[in-house]
Amino acid sequence: MPKLTVDGQELEVPEGATVLQACELAGKEIPRFCYHERLSIAGNCRMCLVEVKPGPPKPQASCALPAAEGQEIRTDSEMVKTAREGVMEFLLINHPLDCPICDQGGECDLQDQSMAYGRGATRYDANKRAVTEKYMGPLIKTVMTRCIHCTRCVRFSEEIAGVDEIGALYRGEDMQITTYLEQAAAHELSANVIDLCPVGALTSRPYAFEARPWELKKTLSIDVSDAVGANIRLDSRGREVMRALPRINDDVNEEWLSDKGRYQVDGLTKRRLDKVFMRKRGKLAESSWDEAFKAIAKAKPGKNVAAIAGDMVDCETMFAAKALLGAMGSKLLEGRQTGMDYDVSNLAAVNFNTTFAGIETADAILIVGSHVRWEAALVNARIRKAVKNGAQVFVVGPKWETTYPATFLGEDLSVLNRIPKALGDAMKKAERPAVILGGAALAQGALGAGLKLVDKFKLVKDGWNGFNVMHFSAARMGGLMLGYAQKNGMADVVKAKPKVVFSLGADEMDFEPFVDALKVYIGHHGDKGAHAADIILPAASYAEKDGTYVNTEGRVQFAEKAVFAPGDAREDWTILRALADALGVSVGFDSFAELQAAMIKAVPALGEEGLADFGDLPKADSKAKAEGTIAAYPIKDFYLTNPIARASATMQQCSAELIHGEELAEAAE
Amino acid sequence: MADRHIAPDTPELRERWDSFAWTKENAKKADWHIAKYPEGRAKSAVMPLLDLAQRQVGEETDTQGWLPLPVIEYVAAYIDVPVIRVLEVATFYFMYNLVPVGKFHVQVCGTTPCMLRGSDDIISACKKRGMEKGKVSEDGLWTLTEVECMGNCATAPMVQINDGNYEDLTVERLDAVLDALAAGEEPKEGTQEPGRHTSEPSGGPTTLKEMVDANHDYRGDW
Amino acid sequence: MAFLGKIFTWWNGATIGTLLNSWRTGEKVGTDAQGNTYYRAKKTKEGARERRWVIYEGANDASRIPVEWHGWMHGSFDDVPESNLPPAKIWEVDYTPNATGTADAYRPAGALERGGKRAKATGDYEAWAPDS
Q1: How high is the ipTM of this complex?
Q2: Which chains touch A (3 or more CB pairs under 8 A)?
């Protein structure tokens, strides 16, 4: 613990801290461009110069200088001031003064810091450097003339994403940041370099010239594109969500966001359900709320009613539907649309118990039936971190491109019964072993066999629970907590032959078996569910309602409403509340606050933001055996997993270019 | 300085170089370079391997050699490094040629000491012989590049042609060297000044004169 | 009828009174391309500004005075415009009066008169239709 002084203020800093971190601990702001907490230290922008004694009589780059005992650091001396002015002036020699036409304007580090630390005028009149345009794919717009060579993007793609594709070619003033042969940056976290870029060199292509940061309303929300529950900020103008940006939450998404969570928001203005539709003579026609409610009441469902929750609904919607069905005397709730029927009697067994922050510290990881990169891109970045710290990774399932060294053990699940030696040794040696069961494994009924590994690999230790299930639907854990699960999954719902089926934005389910039922689709996008429905009640998407979401590690998080739903669409719970009147039952709440209170009373864990406690893992069934092979993963196309993303032009383009690009090129030839 | 760019990625380039592989001796040399570094650190050998590849390309094309993209990709695959990382190295260092060069790569030093001693004349002499900066002359023999200091300031001006330095040049001496090269001869490398051996002071030593013939202990003189 | 109109209406050309006055006290200076006639007072008091006026051929609309006569009317120059101004360039378009309030008035792209199709704006969304 070195003791040092910053501007005369004495303080102790942790071992291994840099001078920059010491200054921050002392509450001093150090300007910087290349330094970033989550990336390696580069030390090439020189903006963080401070005066350090003892040492050479010149300013030193604080980001790359280790804090040491007895250092006297000054951040307020004349030398530091002129040094910063000098560096700023150097940086601006070649930086174009095109702020008025630059998308970074208003949220630009260079702009802010030149205002705060710069000289205010330039002494250079020579021509500025110009750099040719670079193509980096459908998400990243580049104006490389603005690049100040901080190399944050290069370090991000190499260190965090694990996909070496961005590099710095040539040298000195001629240095250019580019991808190899200007291929598109093709990984799930690629757009994070836009946030990292301190200037306007890398900006968002779909958001190009859409809005200025100061005219946007910022709303704290939760990403629903996967079950990670990344914390996001929705920036909206008027009635439209313009963009989604990650918020910092070290427990969940650090400060990254998957490309889908970031760019599916333009799908919020496409294919929207904004009117009530009813099927008349086999065709869906516009209708009114009254007519639709009357038709549902006329079906006289009585107890014969079921509700299927979609992948993106919030807990409140699910609870409102549960209350409605409860009042009618039905318990036919299900959220696992594709027919999975794993045992949910103990939720700890279907939870990501290690937590995302915990998986970073694991030293041996077995992934069974999960394409982590596509099912939870941010967790994949965490696993990569674990691997960098020496963890070994084994995967059971079809091969996918990992961003770290991993051993594939084949597609046959029976390896879980007879553990291969390499895996067994690694797990035995590991202090913090972890197993991740994915959707593909659950679908094969491997949960029981997975639980057997808990004893075999000693996954549960003091302060460590290495048993994880990875879901990829934002609504899954919340749904399970609210009882959206039948013993045999969807099969039970089908067997009960409900007269009315409420589909709460459920688009992946099979509507075939419900051919005789009145299918009521309550959702926000016209997708498979809407096409199959008899009555469509337009509802709100995640951006248009307050809601509670539970991510796959059982973390309860609250999202706020950013904009209003379009047209006639209403927030889901109001629709269900009105339906209760139409059906002549009482659900016991009249406002959102009452609904939430009732929900929290029923499931107290949903009232507290943070990890829900599901208790201990259940005893494994000794007879459980893993059988079958994992033929494929449930996600076929990373960019098109949900109705919002499928409606999004950006996601469609990404899918066409980044996933089917090669096929397209071949077709063109 | 030099206006560098990567040779465009054309189907012709791919066709010509996709089949690039080490020759038998070069494969041995490459593995020898890699063996210099600890196990798993093969990527440390990227620079000698790029040089080796450039020389092999040179042999195949009877020029000084350059690095077409497929060759860079081959080197990257050989040491299992992402191509972009190898390309970064290849574009950073000026001794890796990114575009084809002639049989003789004439690199004229234009930094201050050489400039003061007349490197401008050397460059115009080169140009007079039909060389053009960054281009291969029509007969395929010459490529002219102006480079920064080569560390031969004591014998300025100098040019580096392929692997040899030719120092103490005048236009006439340069012409003699180039003519000899064009004729397939091997002119004497190093200083071109008659009577000078290396970079000792011209006109004989001015200090440490006693050291010329034998070792001399100066300590008594202090 | 036309005669009565000349007596009692003022919005088309000049009334009889103005015509009489112009004939009596005014001196004709010239006419422009639209046929408007320009007059100046025969006598001007010492030190006062010369009176200049126009009798319109058709509607009494001040914006019908073309730019060159506008200059003369406002005293920018004294002689007739033709003698003062450079010859018209071939790229000059014909002078048109202010079209506000007429059918020729400018309508932005989103106006109903131009089909009501405006550019995309924030908050617009694409609604789903069953047959899509």
Answers
A1: 0.87
A2: B, C
